[in-house]
Amino acid sequence: MHGSSTSCALGFSGYVEQLKDPHDFFTGRLGNVEYVVCKDNNKKVRAFHNVCRHHASLLASGCGKKSCFVCPYHGWTYGLDGGLLKATRINGIQNFDVNDFGLVPLPVATWGPFVLLNMDEKLSSELVVDEDKVAYEWLGSCADLLSLNGVDASLSFVCRREYTIECNWKVFCDNYLDGGYHVPYAHKGLASNLKLESYSTEIFEAVSIQSCKGGGESKGDDYGRLGPEALYAFVYPNFMINRYGPWMDTNLVLPLGPQKCLVVFDYFLETPFKNDESFIQQSLEDSESVQIEDIILCEGVQKGLESPAYKFGRYAPSVENAMHHFHRLLHLNLTK
């Protein structure tokens, strides 16, 4: 294990590709924080609480382009720098300073293809600009390892798929973190293309990285979808980065209640493959098959956890150390 167990205030919010041009924006939610991220007129990335300062309405939804944010409730209008441009029907209001009612900023940073937000209210709201510092704060000592393994901004976005699963969010994470334990039993098609005896796990501060060599038939440098090696990085508490062959996909797990979660998959591809429609379609179909198999597993585990017969299990030391690391970090957070 590298370093000590830590948790980080930085959290994934979106992708650099969503902010290609001035006026691009996207929204989202982390915990109880609604946020909007945008690129202003000067091509500067900014982030704010997505909450009107008048009556707490959400300002924006989804993603797209806006030259300003207009509250759909009472028409208060904000610039992309967060400043209040227009407050409607406030004649007679006393002690009102327009500078006190701009959008509340959030610290924002980028690393590789990712846009990150700092949710620690104790920290400064200034933009974080030192990418090396950001990399260490978010990923710890494995940042360079991920960069060297092709986790970067050169990949092209392909598509997003979302799955609503009838299980607690931690059940999905546990399934991801079992060191390939379930793969030969639940993913026979996937297992046939992996050398499972090569499966290994490395633990870092708030990240675990599982890796496995590809085992399918190869023709020269063509290893198909999975490539010669697959890498699976779990960034505590709920974000996963998977790099294999020419592909990268990410998984964001969002709790929807004690027995339900939403998992957001985003797929990226190396540029030379982005126009190969048959390869893309076949790869996405193969990925979909694996996701359906995992959903069946996770929903079955959720039902089993609710049974009075189950109290607790034991970790398999040779494979489930990434899961144990996740549980330790979670326990540390919950008992602070």
Would you mind describing this structure in some detail?
The protein has 336 residues and is of the alpha+beta class. The protein has two domains: 10-139, Rieske Iron-sulfur Protein, CATH 2.102.10.10; 144-335, Naphthalene 1,2-dioxygenase Alpha Subunit, Chain A, domain 1, CATH 3.90.380.10. It is built from seven helices and 17 strands. It has helices spanning 131-139, 143-148, 169-176, 183-186, 188-191, 277-305, 321-334; strands spanning 10-15, 24-30, 33-39, 45-49, 63-65, 69-70, 77-78, 84-86, 108-111, 114-118, 156-165, 194-203, 207-214, 229-235, 239-244, 247-257, 260-269. The protein has a seven-stranded antiparallel sheet. A hairpin with a 3-residue loop joins strand 12 (194-203) and strand 13. 33% of the residues are buried. Mean pLDDT is 91; it is low at 3-7 and 218-223.
